[in-house]
Amino acid sequence: MTQSAYVLLGLTAMVAALVAVLTFAVLKFVAGARQARRHLRADGGPEGDFVSSALEEAIARLKQQEAAMSARAVASERLSSQIVESLTAGLLVVGGTGRVEILNPAAHRLLRVGAAEPGADYRDLLKAAPALREVMEECLATRQPIVRRSVQMDTPDGPVHFGVSVSPLGDARDPAAICLFSDLTNVIELEEQLRLKETLARLGELTAGLAHEFRNGLATIHGYSRLLAPEGLPAAYRPYVLAIRQETETLGQVVTNFLNFARPEKPLLAPVALEPLIRRATDELRHELPAAATIDISGEFGRILGDEVLLRQMFGNLLRNAVEACETAGIRPQVVIEGRVDQGRRTCRITVSDNGPGIPEGDRARVFQPFFTTRSRGTGLGLSVVQKIVVMHNGRVAIGASPAGGACVDVSFPAA
Ligand SMILES: Nc1ncnc2c1ncn2[C@@H]1O[C@H](COP(=O)(O)OP(=O)(O)OP(=O)(O)O)[C@@H](O)[C@H]1O
Ligand SMILES: [Mg+2]
Fold it and tell me: Which label site among 9, 259, 332, 377 has the fewest CB atoms less than 10 Å from its CB?
């Protein structure tokens, strides 16, 4: 063998040894990797399952809680809107820049307005109730609560009184307010009636005794004057005796009227239909009235619990006043009696209007006072008697202007 053959043989042996070493290393690596994968699979499986099931459970619990919370939110929203809807007091919530946020059905009814447009301004909504608007404005400006303030709103059916409480909401940058109000008209009218009843009773007590004594004295003077027969007197004295008789008779009539007014009267209450009663009062008066005078009766009158005789006297006084006022002003009397039954307030309302000169605004509060008169032969008791009879029937009476420019007396009674 040559030298180069030995070298070739040595090299071949070395390559074979290297290939063997490499093959062993690869086999070892593959076996190690397989074992590691087997290990990972054997150790990591149960841990991964535990983590994922815990996560699923937590998510399910969160979903349950979310559903319960939204059900609770819906229920509490429903409850709060039911409370707002069923409140008998008016509720008005005003947000920033004066937006109406809540206006409940009672508020619609009390304010006599329709549903507020979304985003409507409370100042527009309360146009017909300026006093209520002022209370809201005050609370929004001062951020101070206002408790049980009494305000008045004028309506075609007469004044309505509200008791109002307003509380500020939000902060000074975005001032809002919540306003609760209720109708106190009946309470105020009852208080007014009680006050009037007390005043009339006190007035009656104080003066009835005095008037009684006065009438006795007058009767004596009148009696003596009747003993003086004018025929037996010198002609110059006769007119004096006749004048004494006439004046004492007139004064006696005034005192009798006043005693009738002052005497505490107990009405005999029974259900009465107002329309036939008014027609009868009108017929009874016809013979006293000028032939040219007209009295129109129209509308719905209803029934009340009342004393027929006193009520006829009351309507008689009103008709007499209307006709007398027209005649004094030289106007042909045209009297209109209108009836209306207010089902909501359960009242029967009657207006007696005329085309006379009317009553100056400054006198309207005084005409019901006893002895207030502008007529030369008037006693000033007619309207006091009217008021007394109305109050006895738990009604109310007010005087204003008629469309014809004359007076309009507005009487209302609780419906039977
Ligand atoms: N329809 C009317 N139009 C204008 N003024 C009226 C009317 N009714 C009442 N008045 C005013 O009210 C006043 C008081 O009326 P009231 O009936 O109480 O007394 P009177 O009519 O003056 O006297 P009398 O006691 O005889 O009735 C009247 O004097 C008159 O000034
Ligand atoms: Mg009169």
Answer: 377
